[in-house]
Give the backbone structure.
Amino acid sequence: MKTRALSERALIVLLAAITASGPVSLNIYMPVVPMARAAFGVSVAAASTTVSAPLIAFAFGLFLYGPLSDHYGRRPVILTGLGIYLGGLLLALFAPSIGALTVGRVIAALGTSAGVTVARAAMGDLYAREKMAHKLATLTMVMVTANALAPAVGGALAEAFGWQAVFVVLLVSALAIAFATWRWLPETRRSGEGQGPRHILQATTGLLRQRTFVGLALQSAVIYAIFFVFVALVPYVFRNLGRSAAEYGLWYLIISIGYFTGNWCVSRYTYRFGVARLISAGIAIQAVAALAGWLLALGGLWHPFWLFAPWGLIGFAQGLALPNLTASAVALAPRHAGAASGLLGFIQQIVGALAVQMMAVTPTVNPKPLTLFIAACAMTAWLAHVLGTRDRVSPTPSSD
């Protein structure tokens, strides 16, 4: 079917909706994880597999769909992923056990990963690095509006109708997105650009040999690990402190507002300050805010305000750094934007998933272990960035 031409703004909105499917599916579910755990009578670690296993599946999906979209085109791969996503949601909705729920969420994650990685590849098809960072920030601002509401909606739905209600909402939205994609999404990969598996494998291994790409990927992976660990464990902390899933969703808006503001700054100031300076600022602010969050928790300030206030700054810092890290990494392989986007996403998600599962065995009676982990990751990322920048600007020693 021939698609109708979209304006640039409408295309960004559609790509944002496609990209948001994965994060919204995660965030709308996070407040209800303790409810699912109670319903099936399993441990925190077992319930955490409904988060960590989909993250790992999501990572492998990113790795797979990027090269496939380089070979077959962006549009058919996204449509295939949306079909898989719908199947996974149906299984999760009617899951009779924690195992079936995990499998359903794994299948759904495999589906949504197509949209995330291929949408970024489509941006790489259309724009150079600076403009891509600008457009990614704009896309994320549109996406974050829905993403910001997801935990609040998930918590409210769970309190009113039960935790399975989140999957009904996801099914309805997924059907709408699938129809809009089938009807209006154009093919952005230029004709004749398809590459065989050997060329795509060469491009992928070439990226792994680039210190710049690996550094950008690891910095963005730290951002994902910090975020995923926080949203995976804070609902348990809230529950242990006697607070509800709905309240968690409302406090989560602080993170979304911070991230939205960071993205807005990228969309407005990328050309003025440059990609590298915005990345440096984001990583530094993240480290300072994470350290402050740990010190507040260490001092016994466990009210949700003190838990989430530093995350307003962390969200801002991540919104400032992440679009620029992504654009810089994908721009390193302009002829293989799908492979670069997929490999980047794979590294981000694997690191995030491993961090969630590792932290799932730590106590959640208070926020001290959680905030310590976040502060350690953020400070390590800042130190690595400072040393890496110093290496790039230092003169090469003479060999005489």
Summary: The chain has one domain: 8-182+208-390.
